[in-house]
């Protein structure tokens, strides 16, 4: 525990300012935190998320610590690139979207984002700008819609 778990708990309390009473919530929502390297996984993910605007009142909380276990290069950046290159949003627009709806960064591009954009544009005849205003759309299921 001293070499694996304690550093993670210190990181959560000291660097993210998650209260001790919220630590169990973070762990139960994302048990992988306990086996993640602070130096190789958690701290780099936090640094990247801060560049997107997860700072101040929009900082990482016990509700979205799952983002910290996402690999920046293989998981987070491809989602950002899809929103920028695939949908034409600016980095600033994408940052606002993911801060408003952090779950966006947990969805699969191929299995969630692309099919939902296609459904929204083709079936609902929506405008991509509406997705910017309501990124929570991606959290809805398309089953039986």
TrEMBL record:
Annotated keywords: Transcription, Transcription regulation, Transcription termination, Transit peptide
Family in the record: Belongs to the mTERF family.
Entry protein name: Transcription termination factor MTEF1, chloroplastic-like
The organism of origin for this protein: Camelina sativa (False flax)
Name of the gene encoding the protein in the UniProt record: LOC104775031
């Amino acid at each position: 525990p001293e070499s694996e778990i304690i550093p993670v708990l210190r990181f959560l309390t000291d660097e993210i300012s998650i209260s001790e009473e919220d630590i169990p919530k973070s762990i139960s929502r994302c048990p992988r935190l306990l086996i993640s390297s602070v130096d190789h996984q958690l701290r780099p993910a936090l640094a990247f998320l801060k560049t997107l605007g997860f700072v101040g009142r929009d900082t990482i909380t016990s509700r979205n610590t799952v983002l910290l276990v996402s690999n920046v290069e293989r998981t987070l950046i491809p989602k950002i690139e899809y929103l920028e290159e695939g949908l034409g949003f600016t980095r600033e627009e994408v940052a606002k979207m993911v801060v408003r709806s952090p779950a966006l960064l947990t969805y699969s591009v191929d299995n969630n984002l692309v099919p939902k954009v296609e459904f929204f544009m083709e079936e609902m005849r929506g405008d991509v700008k509406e997705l910017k205003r309501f990124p929570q759309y991606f959290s809805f299921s398309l089953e039986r819609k």
